[in-house]
Amino acid sequence: METVAIVGVGLIGSSFGLALKKAGFTGRILGVSSPGAVRQALACGAIDEAWPLEEAVRRADVVFLSQPIRRILETLGALDEWLRPGSLVTDAGSTKAQIVARGRQVIRRGQFLGGHPMAGKEKRGASEADADLFAGRTWVLTPADPAELETAIAREFLGWIRAIGAAPVCLSPEEHDRVAAFTSHLPQVLSTALAATLAAQLPAPEQLQVAGPALADMTRLAASPYEVWEDILTTNAGAIQNALGAYISRLADLRANLGGARAGQEFRIANQFAERLKRQSRG
């Protein structure tokens, strides 16, 4: 893996470039994006050179698509004729079923391996990039067959994922989308709904003086822009609707049993899960 093309040098793409360099990658990192985005990526050192898509892909051993989901789907359709034989195309899309189906359909000259690093921030752009963004985080991979991870280029890519501090986990695209609907997409929707509810119910600035740190924690994700989440909500709508249904059912049960034994049981279940999650994060 001597040359990496990062298509989309925003927060994730630029953080990946910085992480590779911090981990000791000495090859070339090419950036493909808008003029403003590549200027930022060059300025922060995330990429070495800026190229048009075709020229970058022709030079790359690994093509890393870190665009919005719909742009990834569009870009996949253009890549195959430019790919070097034996090269790897992977992505950072937050939903996997549609991307993986598209990648397997159109990538022939190289290898496609779907991926999703479970890392991010509420803010976007290369100016927010962080070489340690993926350290201690899960990096989901979605091969159709375990043998796909045994090719020379896939093994090398996996080695770099581990070198930047991430932990690879393999799931099917469908299982990824089902689980991510609960662990990532549901928290975002809940934070957004909570903030929107409070905006309507507490319009006076002095009313927010009653709020404490807990409210800031609960609404942190509400700062995420809709432009980032629109594609996620549309490409994983079914799984998110199922997750919302499960949450709404639980919330309705708690509403009907405030102060009762059932509420106490819910708190105990929640306490145990929160402790599990804390231990998992520390581990």
Describe this structure in words.
This protein has 283 residues and is of the alpha/beta class. Helices cover 52% and strands 13% of the residues. The chain contains 11 helices and 8 strands. An 8-stranded mixed β-sheet has the order 3-2-1-4-5-6-7-8, with helices on both faces. The chain is globular and about 65 Å long. The mean pLDDT is 95.
In short:
The protein is of the alpha/beta class. 52% of the residues lie in helices and 13% in strands. The two termini are 30 Å apart.
Fraction of residues in H or I helices: 40-55%
Distance between the termini: 30 Å
Strand order of the largest sheet: 3-2-1-4-5-6-7-8
Output the structural class. alpha/beta
List the SSEs and their pairings.
Blueprint: E1 3-7, H1 11-22, E2 28-32, H2 35-43, E3 49-50, H3 53-59, E4 62-65, H4 69-79, E5 88-91, H5 97-106, E6 111-117, E7 138-142, H6 152-163, E8 167-170, H7 173-201, H8 213-218, H9 226-235, H10 237-256, H11 261-282
Parallel strand pairs: 1-2, 1-4, 2-3, 4-5, 5-6, 7-8
Antiparallel strand pairs: 6-7
Helix pairs in contact: 4-5, 7-10
Search tags:
single chain, alpha/beta, Rossmann fold, 6-phosphogluconate dehydrogenase C-terminal fold, 11 helices, 8 strands
